[in-house]
C-alpha cells in the first residue's frame, strides 16, 4: 500500500489519522482533501491504494463520492474505510459501496490501526495474483505473471515486456509474432490499458498522470510513458 487518501473536512481528525498512519509506516504517501471535488482530482492524478472517507463532507456526502470512485475502473475494488458519526449509514456503506471497514466517531487510535492492518492483510492477499499470460515462441510456451508486467512496448510485430524481477529491478522479455492488439486482447482480464499506439500499461503500476505533459509515471521507477490523444480519455479514467 503506497498512496492513502484521507477525505475529511475536520482538520483535527485529518491530522489524527495522518499521525497514526505515519506511525504505522513512514513510507505511506498521505494525501488529504477536505472536499469531494478535490478528492476526485487527487484520485485521478495518483493511484490510491486506500480511501478513508468522512460521510458528511462540505460539498456532498462521502457515500456519493464513493459511488463516483467505484465508477472508475481502477477503483472498483480499492479498499474504502468510512469515518462518520452517523452509524445508520453503515448498512448502506457495506451493501451498496462495499466499503472495507467503518469507523464511528469518536474513534480511537487502536480502532484505526485495527482497520488499517485489516486492509494491509487484504491487499497482501490480493497482490498474490496468480493470473498469467501464455505466449508461444519458436515452439515453446512461455508464461508470465500479469502482476510482474509493468508495461509493454511495441515495435511492429516485436514486443518488449518490461517486467519487475524478484529483487524489484527491471528486466526485459522480447516477444515476436504478436501485434500490440493481439497482446492487449490476451490481457483483457488484467489491469491493463493501452495508453499509446506503441504502449500498454499495467494500471496498478501508475504513480501519477500529468495532464499538462500528457505523460504517465511509473511507481518505483524513473520511467514515464506518453499518452496518445486517442487514448487520453480512457487513460484518465483507468490510470
TrEMBL record:
Name the UniProt key words of this record, in alphabetical order: Phosphoprotein
Pfam families in the cross-refs: LytTR, Response_reg
Question: Which PROSITE patterns does the entry link to?
Answer: RESPONSE_REGULATORY
Task: List GO molecular-function terms, semicolon-separated.
Answer: DNA binding
Annotated Response regulatory domain residues: 3-120
For the keyword Secreted, the answer is no
Q: What is this protein called?
A: Response regulatory domain-containing protein
Source organism of this protein record: Planococcus rifietoensis
Amino acid at each position: 500500500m503506497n498512496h492513502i487518501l484521507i477525505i475529511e473536512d475536520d482538520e483535527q481528525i485529518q491530522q489524527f489519522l495522518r499521525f497514526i498512519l505515519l506511525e504505522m509506516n513512514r513510507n505511506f504517501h498521505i494525501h488529504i482533501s477536505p472536499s469531494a471535488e478535490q478528492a476526485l482530482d487527487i484520485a485521478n492524478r495518483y493511484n490510491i491504494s486506500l480511501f478513508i472517507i468522512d460521510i458528511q463532507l462540505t460539498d456532498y456526502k462521502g457515500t456519493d463520492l464513493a459511488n463516483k470512485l467505484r465508477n472508475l475502473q481502477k477503483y472498483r475494488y480499492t479498499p474504502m474505510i468510512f469515518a462518520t458519526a452517523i452509524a445508520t449509514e453503515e448498512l448502506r456503506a457495506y451493501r451498496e459501496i462495499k466499503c472495507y471497514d467503518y469507523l464511528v466517531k469518536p474513534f480511537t487510535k487502536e480502532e484505526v490501526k485495527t482497520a488499517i492492518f485489516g486492509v494491509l492483510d487484504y491487499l497482501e492477499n490480493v497482490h498474490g495474483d496468480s493470473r498469467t499470460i501464455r505466449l508461444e515462441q519458436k515452439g515453446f510456451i512461455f508464461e508470465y505473471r500479469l502482476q510482474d508486467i509493468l508495461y509493454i512496448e511495441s515495435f511492429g510485430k516485436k514486443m518488449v515486456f518490461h517486467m519487475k524481477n524478484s529483487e524489484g529491478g527491471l528486466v526485459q522479455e522480447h516477444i515476436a509474432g504478436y501485434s500490440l492488439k493481439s497482446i492487449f486482447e490476451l490481457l483483457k482480464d488484467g489491469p491493463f490499458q493501452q495508453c499509446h499506439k506503441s504502449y500498454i500499461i499495467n494500471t496498478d503500476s501508475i504513480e501519477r498522470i500529468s495532464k499538462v505533459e500528457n505523460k504517465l509515471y511509473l511507481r518505483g521507477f524513473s520511467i514515464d510513458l506518453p499518452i496518445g490523444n486517442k487514448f487520453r480519455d480512457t487513460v484518465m479514467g483507468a490510470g
